[in-house]
Design goal:
alpha+beta, 36% helix
Length: 78
C-alpha cells in the first residue's frame, strides 16, 4: 500500500497561510484552485461557500480519496 496523503480544503488564503509556511508547502497548481503539496499533505484553497467547498472536494475525489467533511466553524465554536 502506498503512502497516505492528508488533504485539507480551506476557504481563504489567510486561513491557510500559517500552515503553508509552517510545513513548507509548495504551490503545484493554480487553476481552478490553488493547491499546495509537501511531505504527505495536500492543501486546497477553494474560496468561500458550500459550492466552492463541494467543487474542491469533487476535484480531490477524482483521485480516489476518502472525504471526511469537517466544519471549521463548528470546531471553533466548541
Amino acid at each position: 500500500m502506498g503512502r497516505r496523503l492528508i488533504e485539507l480544503v480551506i476557504a481563504l488564503a489567510c486561513e491557510a497561510r500559517p500552515l503553508i509556511e509552517r510545513v513548507g508547502l509548495e504551490r503545484v497548481e493554480e487553476r481552478p484552485f490553488w493547491i499546495y503539496e509537501g511531505d504527505g499533505l495536500r492543501l486546497v484553497i477553494c474560496g468561500v461557500g458550500k459550492a466552492a467547498a463541494a467543487a474542491a472536494c469533487a476535484r480531490l475525489s477524482g483521485e480516489g480519496v476518502w472525504l471526511y467533511p469537517v466544519s471549521y466553524t463548528h470546531l471553533r465554536a466548541h
